[in-house]
Structure prediction request, 266 residues.
Amino acid sequence: MQLAEMKVAFLGKSGFIAVALVILVSTSLFLRPLEHALSNELEYPIKIDEISGLDDALGQGVILGVLGGLRTLFADFAWLQLNQCWERQDRVGLNAFIQLVTSMHPKSEHFWVNSARILAYDVSHWRIASEGGNELLGFEARERIHAEQAFRGIELLLKALQHHPESATLRLEVGKIYLNRLKDYELATEWFARALNLKGVPDYAVRVYSDLLCKLGRQQEAYQFLTQEYLLLSEQNSVHAQILLERIDALEMNLNIPPGERLLAE
Prediction:
């Protein structure tokens, strides 16, 4: 109740309404008025037994149409409920609220990315702990769980790309799951490459992509890529530029490039 009281104090009357909506979301009471609204909208009876069935039963277009301008507010407070499920390690509630939040506000990359991270990383550790931990589970069993949850996260991100087809952030997130959780450097490299020419690519993506190329034994390709990226920089005195220069210099030595043919040859 403390969290709800804080929200009421901060948001005033609208906060009270939103908190009430969140309380309804966590109970079956939420579904009854929503069923009624949807039935009126579609002109035939709608029956929804649980939150997790909303998207499958109706589709996002209907949900967004009924909620209208309240959907962002509703989604924000549903996200608070999702975080409470995360704190309790309540996997059933977590899955239901992930589906609800992303259905209500599919244009928010934040919901997609953080939900995918929870599925890919946190839930795998919960599952291992619930099955006895590292002491009882062997390496193969742990890797199986990690892989299952990694693909759950990737599946969610692929769904998110349907709403954000030009998103570099979502592509990089897929690549990071392949890299960090699945250790699949080929697919990680492929997904980083898909993001590099899109808007909003962070500097780290360039460095990680070059590292991945090196891991795959493609040092010449990494050298050409970094050289091109460095020459395209508008600020070649930046920290990012200096890091690229260090990596270029190391590759020039590893590839035995003659001094006169190096990037900064005098």
